Each structure stands twice: as structure tokens, then as C-alpha cells.
Amino acid sequence: MVFQKLTETVKYIRSIAPNKPRVGITLGSGLGAFVKEIEVEHTIPYHEIPYFMPTTVEGHQGNLIFGKVGSQSVVVLQGRNHYYEGHSMETVVFPTRTVALLGIESLILTNSAGGFGETMQAGEFMIIEDHINLMGTNPLMGPNIKELGPRFPDMTEAYDKNLIEKMEQIFQKQQVRYHKGIYCGVSGPTYETPAEVRYLKLIGGKAVGMSTVPEVIAANHLGLRVAALSCITNLAAGISRQKLSHQEVTDTAKQVEKQFTGFLKEFVQSI
């Protein structure tokens, strides 16, 4: 049933945008402005695509965009659906599976996250080296869809080491401060308590957010190369004294827009 839906969706999208993209990009909260760097060929609102759900969270525009970044052909998910919105995991990862079946080889995921690594400050970036899935579920639960991948996918290198190395080189070249670390994926929608953040630190995390992990699992199931970047838009609960808000997330993302788009533009072209 899921694969039939995906086939129908891909057929519809190809009727509008027949070219095969090489790189897929998912833009997280407040990070949709990267689209200005794309030579846009086609824009399809999510609500027009079969089985796609419109986005509801501020900072997620909800468009599928085809185009070029330099000479690199890309497809961009401008905004995502989240598990905390009440969607099934199947719905959350449906766009990721769709862009994979459109023919991409690499997937770049971005998000806004709360940081609690040593010396980490709001407005900085963290290259995700690995993740801990604390969402209490997994997008591959249920019967395996053999057309997409194996029953038990290996997650030893869920985040491609060569892509991580390229990300580091570009940050260093651009003289942008960055971190590397483990991303903890939680269900939300509440922000974490200070006690929960202390626990996340204890188990090795450096940032926490409510997305990305399901998409990374689905992408690895499909055999894609994956890279992921967190924009540290706030310090997690108990690290700073102020209360957390989504407004702070979108405001900080806006402040680092130039650095983020400059990095992502060069990274996409380097793949």
C-alpha cells in the first residue's frame, strides 16, 4: 500500500518535473531562505502532491522545489511534517522516501536544535555525527517494504563520514564556528525539562530536537548517503536561564541565515 502511494506520488511529480535530481535537501525550522540560492525550475506546493501533508508549523513553508545550485541538480523539501503534529511515522518519512525514489544519491537534512554541548552558543552549527532515537518508535516498524530496503538496515554509518569531512572543510574555509556531536531525537512537542537535558548529556548527546531521526532511518533503509546539520537556535532547558520559545528558534535561524546559506550552497556543489 505504501509503495503504491509512493509510485503514484513520484509519477505525479515527474509529470511536472521530469529531470532527475542528484541531491535532496530538507530545510528545517526557519531555514527555508536557502531557496533564494537556487535557480528554481519547478515549485510544487505540498497540498497539490498526492499523499503529502501540508505543513502547519511556523518556519516550514511546505513546497517541493526543483532546480540548480551551481551545476548541481537538487530537489528541496522546504519544510517538514513532525511526529508531534499527530502524524504517523509513515507520513513523516513519506517525503523523504519520495525524493529518494526520484533518483537522488545524497540527502542533506537540516534542523533547528537545542544545544547543550560544552562551549556551545545559540547561533552556532553542529554537524551531526550520529543520533540517539528517543522518539519511542521507528518509521520501519510494521511489515518491511522490500522495494525500499532490507528488513534490518545497518546503521553503523548512518551519517556518511566523507560528507562529514567535507562539511568540516567548508566550515573551516569559511571561518565559521561549528561543533560535531550526537543529536538526540525526541517526540515533542514540549521542550525538554532540565532533568531530561541532564540525562541527554549523560548518555552522550550534544543537541536535541523533534525531527530528522525518522528521515535518517528511512534514508539509510533506502541506501542513500546522508549528511545532517543542526542550527543551534537556543540553549536547552537548564543551560540558560530564560524560558524556551519557538519564536526564539525562528529569530536565531534568521540571524544566521547568511552563514547557513553560504555554507549549504558550497557544500551542495562539493558533493
Describe the structure.
- The protein is of the alpha/beta class.
- 31% of the residues lie in helices and 26% in strands.
- The chain has seven helices and nine strands.
- The chain has helices at residues 2-16, 89-101, 161-174, 194-202, 213-221, 246-255, 257-270; strands at 23-27, 39-45, 63-69, 72-78, 106-115, 124-134, 178-186, 207-209, 225-235.
- It has a five-stranded mixed barrel.
- Strand 3 and strand 4 form a beta hairpin.
- The longest helix has 15 residues, at 2-16.
- The radius of gyration is 17 Å and the shape is globular.
- The model has no long low-confidence stretch (mean pLDDT 92).
What is the averaged pLDDT score?
92
Major sheet strand order: 5-8-7-6-9
Assign an overall shape: globular
Helix run count:
7
Distance between the terminal alpha carbons, to the nearest Å? 34 Å
Number of DSSP E strands: 9
Indicate the radius of gyration in whole angstroms: 17 Å
What is the SS-derived class? alpha/beta
Helical residue percent band: 25-40%
Beta fraction of the residues? 25-35%
Element string (H = helix, E = strand): HEEEEHEEHEHEHEHH
Poorly predicted regions are none
Can I get a quick summary?
The chain has 7 helices and 9 strands.
Topology (elements, then pairings):
Layout: H1 2-16, E1 23-27, E2 39-45, E3 63-69, E4 72-78, H2 89-101, E5 106-115, E6 124-134, H3 161-174, E7 178-186, H4 194-202, E8 207-209, H5 213-221, E9 225-235, H6 246-255, H7 257-270
Parallel strand pairs: 1-4, 1-5, 5-9, 6-7, 7-8
Antiparallel strand pairs: 2-3, 3-4, 5-8, 6-9
Helix pairs in contact: 1-2, 2-5, 3-7
